[in-house]
Amino acid sequence: MMAIPMTMTGYFTQVLAVADAEVQKLRHDPWELVSRAIQPILWLVLFGGVMAQVRGLSPSGEPYLDFLAPGILAQSVLFVAIFYGISAIWERDLGVLHRYMVSPAPRSALVSGKALSSSIRGLSQALVIYVCAAIMGVDLSFAPGNIAAAVLLIGLGSGLFATFSLIIACIVKTRERFMGIGQVLTMPIFFASNAIYPIDLMPRWLKAVSSLNPLTYEVDGLRAVMLRGGVSAYGLGYDLLALAAVLTLLIAIATRMYPRMTQ
Questions:
Q1: Cα–Cα distance, 195 to 18 (Å, whole number)
Q2: CB 40 within 8 A of CB 72
Q3: pLDDT digit string (tens) for 139-195?
Q4: pTM of the model
Q5: Is 197 helix (H, G, I), strand (E, B) or coil?
Q6: What is the distance between the terminal CA atoms of the chain, rounded to a whole angstrom?
Q7: Comparing C-alpha atoms, which of 195, 187, 191 is closest to residue 223?
Q8: CA angle (115 as vertex; 255, 261 as ends), nearest 5
C-alpha cells in the first residue's frame, strides 16, 4: 500500500528536478525576462492607449484597457511559451537530451518538468503585466482567491503552449525551421482569440475557430479573476477544465514523440 505514494513522490521529484534545471537558465540570464517584457508593455501602452479612444470595443462597457490587460497577459505567456521548443533542439545539439533519455525518469516526467518550468517563466511575465496594468489604472482584483486562480490559469496556459512547442520541435528538428513555424503560428493563435476584441465582433467562421483555441479560454478565465467584478463568458470552471484537458492531451503526445528528438 505504501508503494503508490512513494512512486508518486518520486515521479513529482523528477518533474521538479527537470523544472529546476530549466529555471537555473534564468538565473544565469535574467535579462531574457526583461527583454521579453518589453513587447507586452508596448502593447498595453501604445495599442491600448490608442484603441481606448474607440467606443464599442469593450462588450460590457468597461474601459478598453481593463478589457485588454488580461488578453495582453495571455499573449505574453503565449509568445514566451511557443518558442520553448527551441531549447529542446539546443539540448539535443549539445548532448543534454541524450543524458535525459538515458536517465531513469519517465518520459512524461521530462515533458511535465519542461511544462512546469515554462509556467514559472509565464508567472514572471504576469508580474510585469500586473505592475504595468496597475500603473495605467486598470481595475485589478488582488483578492487571494482571484490571484490563486490567475496563477493556475497562467500555469496551465504556459505549460500547454510550451508542450505544443515541444511537439513542433520533435517534428521539425532544426532551429531554422522551428523559428519559421513558431512565427507563423503565434499570430493566428493570438488574433483568432478574444484577446484584443470581443468574440461577438468576429465573423461566424472565426468564432468557430476561436472556440477551438485554448488561448480563448485562458483569456476568458483571466478576465474573470484579474479584474474587479470580472465575468467569464464560459464559466471559470469550464475555462480551467478546457485548458487542463488540452494540456493533458499534449503531454501524452509529447511523451511519445520526445525520444524522436535524438534520432
A1: 31
A2: yes
A3: 999 999 999 999 999 999 999 999 999 898 888 877 788 888 888 888 899 999 999
A4: 0.86
A5: coil
A6: 39
A7: 195
A8: 40
